[in-house]
Specification:
two-stranded antiparallel ribbon, 2 helices
Length: about 80
């Protein structure tokens, strides 16, 4: 993969992380449901979907780590 592609992927992952974190913040503030647009579609999230949202965030952060490692020539150690 070339550097430009990896930087584009990092930017897209960061944007999705921000969307999910914003949604979780809104839900945590007491709002019952919130609609997010990830660019791949719209999704309504509720308090019941917080676990799924946190799981999606963990996946996005892992993906971000992988792309940063590729960009910087590093490696990732799984614990």
């Amino acid at each position: 993969m070339d550097r430009e592609y990896i930087e584009e992927r990092i930017a897209k992952i960061k944007a999705r992380i921000e969307i999910y974190e914003d949604a979780l913040s809104v839900i945590a503030s007491g709002v019952f449901s919130y609609t997010i647009d990830t660019g791949q579609g719209r999704q309504t999230v509720t308090r019941q979907s917080v676990g799924q949202m946190e799981s999606a965030l963990n996946t996005l952060y892992n993906d971000l780590d992988v792309f940063y490692a590729r960009l910087n020539g590093g490696s990732i150690v799984a614990n």
